[in-house]
Design goal:
The complex is a heterodimer of chains A (281) and B (272). Chain A is of the alpha+beta class. Chain A contains twelve helices and eleven strands. The radius of gyration of chain A is 18 Å and the shape is globular. Classes of the chains: A alpha+beta (281), B alpha+beta (272).
Chain lengths: 281, 272
């Protein structure tokens, strides 16, 4: 369940932090399961891995379907400590929108995950589990509280343009004057006002995917997290188009989820193919 | 003066931290004048509660240099950039805090615009009393939502759900060194956490000259509340001492400000 104050916090600031949701013993198992999947992926199943760090972080990898493929991680998606919170934030009938495991990415410039007009009116949530302790300067997720809300959200879009055009940071070959003029607020990304979600293993953050977020000063090889994504039940054609625009794969859920014995897991995916077919028409 | 990007940043996020705005020799004088004001201050006028705060006007004979900063173009010029050529310098205060925290609050209600420069006289960070702000919370779409969140210091709930403590609200810390200035929009939600029992801060305050009907109504209400608070001793006992209002150097700028302060109810009528 979600307390009234927690819901107000999420609606106001665009995120909710729950501390020590999982015990050290549980985290040990989660980390072990994730490590097994990463090692397997990097040695025998390279197609499941994307290199996401560009020239800056060439070793940074993102492992798709990490939660769907590993039963010890799948149970996170139906765990009441996560599921009930999502039900409170997204309402009944929320859907599964994928998972990823990331490691090695040192920095990510300011962005929101679902850019586009009115995208912030359709709530999609990402849940992050950090595997190492993080601080503001060592890999913590930075967020701009309330930045999912219009018109504050739109006023920050220059940060997003910068993210797209420069793919991580201002080009270092620009001279200083040009560099400064490319920065929308005159500050490097690391100096943009924000709140840093400093965390320990076992902490969980739920954030609205239109919230502006970034990471500066990662742990290099050591920075790892598991993410699960969810969306409110799509009720309009616009919602379906929004899903298609950013995450078309949602309409093709992993077979292990479609065939799951868990009513909660199946409930999050079983009608999605039909929605996808509607889009394909 | 501010760059266009800094102005954009101020209006987007509601605050700026400006480094090294006061030089070392200026800081020495400001510290000395603060000490004189603190010594002179009637300690029975303590504002109780979490802040344990004493404050007093710097526009008095014990602090002529600090008083002069209100008309200093380094600050007044920035206020003009933010709020227009006809911006009003309304006050300069010293504040002594001995409490553990300042609860979350904006300084004014909707449609009242202006900014405060704050100078902390010792180094401060998030865990030692630095100003904490919620970036963007001067904007109605954020501020209105914050009012719906239960805050433990402002509107405590039952023991099982008392609301968020100061340190449980997401914030950006305006860490500063002596000489740095933090400028913030009066409407931004701000607070502080921890800090020494001898935390010292000097402020300069500026208001936008109201233009729209909404701004005019809001400032009239603010002026009325100011007078009421003064009568009930909830604010600085004598915010406009004769030292400043007598305007001995016949500053045209100050004369205009004094006229404005009278007009809007911040200053009692002064005999000609």
């Amino acid at each position: 369940m979600v307390e009234k104050g927690q819901l107000a916090h999420f609606e106001t600031f665009g995120f909710l932090v729950l501390r020590q949701v999982f015990s050290p013993e549980e985290m040990k198992d989660i980390i072990g399961a994730a490590d097994e999947m990463w090692e397997t992926a990097l040695t025998t199943n390279k197609k499941s891995v994307s290199f996401v760090g560009g020239e800056k972080d060439p070793g940074a990898t993102s492992f798709r379907y990490i939660v769907e493929r590993q039963p010890r991680l799948t149970k996170l998606a139906e765990d009441s400590r996560i599921y009930d919170v999502l039900k409170g934030l997204l309402g009944s009938g929320f859907i599964w929108a994928g998972s990823e495991g990331q490691r090695g990415r040192v920095s990510t410039s300011w962005h929101n995950d679902r850019p586009g007009k009115n995208q912030n009116k359709y709530t999609r949530i990402k849940v992050h589990f950090y595997i190492e302790p993080t601080t503001k300067t060592t890999g913590a997720l930075r967020v701009i509280p309330g930045s999912h809300r219009s018109p504050f959200h739109e006023s920050l879009e220059p940060l997003m343009n910068h993210h797209i055009e420069n793919n991580d940071s201002i080009n270092s070959d620009k001279n200083e004057i040009d560099r400064v003029h490319l920065l929308p607020f005159g500050e490097e990304g690391a100096d943009i006002p924000c709140f840093a979600f400093e965390s320990n293993p076992g902490d969980v953050i739920f954030f609205h995917q239109n919230l502006f977020h970034a990471v500066y000063g990662g742990l290099g090889e050591g920075r790892r997290y598991i993410a699960m994504k969810f969306a409110a039940q799509p009720t309009t054609d616009e919602h379906i188009q929004f899903i298609k625009a950013h995450t078309e794969y949602v309409f093709h859920p992993h077979e292990d989820f479609l065939n799951s014995n868990s009513p909660r897991i199946r409930g999050m995916v079983e009608n999605l193919e039909a929605l996808g077919a509607k889009v394909l028409k | 003066m501010l760059t266009d990007q800094q102005i954009h940043q101020f209006h987007t996020f509601g605050f700026l931290v400006l480094k090294n705005m006061l030089k070392e020799d200026e800081l020495k004088v400001v510290n000395e004048e603060f000490e004189k004001g603190y010594t002179k201050k009637n300690k029975s006028e303590l504002i109780a509660g979490a802040r344990v705060q004493l404050n007093w006007s710097n526009l008095d004979h014990h602090s002529p240099y600090t008083a002069s900063l209100l008309e200093d173009k380094r600050f007044y010029g920035i206020a003009q950039q933010l709020w227009g050529e006809d911006v009003i310098g309304t006050n300069s205060q010293s504040n002594h805090y001995a409490g553990t925290r300042s609860p979350w609050h904006p300084d004014v209600g909707p449609n009242t615009h202006g900014c405060k420069f704050t100078f902390y006289l010792s180094p401060v960070d998030a865990e030692s009393g630095a100003l904490r702000v919620i970036p963007g919370s001067h904007r109605p779409e954020i501020s209105d939502m914050i009012r719906k969140i239960r805050l433990k210091d402002n509107d405590p709930g039952p023991p099982e759900d008392p609301g968020l403590a100061v340190n449980e609200v997401p914030f950006c810390s305006c860490d500063s060194q002596p000489g740095d200035a933090v400028i913030f929009n009066y409407l931004i939600w701000h607070a502080s956490w921890h800090g020494s029992k001898n935390r010292r801060m000097v402020s300069l305050q500026y208001y936008k000259n109201p233009k729209t009907p909404e701004e005019i109504v809001a400032l009239q209400a603010h002026g009325a509340a100011f007078t009421k608070n003064k009568k009930e001793k909830l604010t600085v006992a004598q915010p406009y001492p004769d030292f400043w209002t007598s305007n001995p150097e016949n500053s045209l700028l100050r004369a205009r400000w004094i006229e404005w302060l009278r007009e809007w109810g911040f200053m009692e009528s002064i005999p000609a």
